[in-house]
Specification:
about 210 residues; alpha/beta; Dihydrofolate Reductase, subunit A; 9-stranded mixed beta sheet; two-stranded antiparallel ribbon; 5 helices
Length: about 210
Amino acid sequence: MFRVTKRLRYQVAVSLDGFIADPNGGYDWIVTDPAVDFGALFKEFDTVVMGRKTYEVTTAEGGTGAMPGLDVVVFSRTLPPRRSRGVRVVGDDPREVVADLKAKSGRDVWLFGGGELFRYLLDAGLVDTVEVAVMPVLLGQGIPLLPAGAQAKLVLSDLKQLPSGIVVLAYSVSGSKAAAPKIRFIKKAKSRQRKSTRAKARKKPR
């Protein structure tokens, strides 16, 4: 379903002590959980925005940074502007680009990372929701969810606890006209149980 007013949603995994990546930008500490339906999550967006550092992490293993079905916009003051299939690197002010994206019809905009871009757009009043998947992990050090700056108040919209210990939280940013959505990309327990039962049946000797 398309929205008349698009939201900018900071959707990210975070450690229990508040880091979105280890000191080197790594994310191999993120816990996987079969209850998360990534296909359903991706369908909530039509555009992804990210900073250069996040982009370089996503392309470090040889990928292009493209995401199926999504337009990816990368903000960088050092990379040359370019456009490839599914990915656009721009040197323009993120505030202006994001404001233009939100003014268009379509699905929401995913603020993929990192923390510095989140801080910049939050201070500009452009972030509508903060949606975090809190991992049952303590990193001790790393890249923070949000760099130091002005305070922002949040309003809880929904939460889900997963079997792995992950807790997914959805907040609206106080003052935003767009409320955070309910968390709909978590598979229902009955559906997970049926799949688990079928998988076990396939493993039984015949």
